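[step 3/7] fold_predict: job queued, chain A
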Amino acid sequence: MTRIWLAVALLVLQEPKAAPPTIVATDAIQPHLVADKEGNLYCAFLRRGNVEVSTSSDDGKTWSPPAVAIDAKGKAKGGMQRGPRIGVDDQKNVVVTAPLCFDEKELREVYPKPDLWLARSTNGGKTFGPPVQVNEKSGTASEGLHAMGVAPSGEVHLAWLDHRDRKEGQDLYYAKASEGKPAKNAKIGAMLCPCCAPGIALDGAGNPVIAWRDGGPTESRPVWIAASKDGGKSFRAPARAHQGETKVPG
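[step 4/7] structure written:
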């Protein structure tokens, strides 16, 4: 049996002191944690093959019983950065995303190809609406590597590896979702490292910045970033995040 342990850091006399770890859920893997503006905690994880969420309103001392966010029929596996992501807005609407496969035929394969799914809760993570597929073309997000961030206003920003435009390799696709409904997909990066998940961060106005590792046949794969100043409607041309060489070959 696997347990998720959560240690909440406290600041005492300007010296960080770790609190004793508390059990969020048993028999769980692939945790992802966020806090709302009041400090309440929300943790998403895979448990018994489904995507579940537990919450805490006392600095992580106690946790709610896990609620099923996405019923994956016990087939969710995760692994290697392929677990769920969770975010919360200023109204305490909670969003969970995860790479999952619901196709019975595909599930019979040794490595079933997932799609990227999103589920939203309007009651603080107690219950969730039905999941919605994010990638417009099924079977193109099969690496299951993605990043997600929620703006204070509730808009959800997602980035993931997608191969819809090529026979080999992965590109970076982006979508914004409002009230649980993803908008049109857009490609913002080409030829990514096929085993590195992208990263995403939002500024105070809800503008996304996305980072990813290059996947081209180079002697030193750089890390790229692309930023938006209009809430994800458009992105500046990608720029290298560093001038030094990574010495990670393609």
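[step 5/7] annotate
Residues 6-13 have pLDDT under 50 and may be disordered.
The chain has one helix and 21 strands.
exit 0
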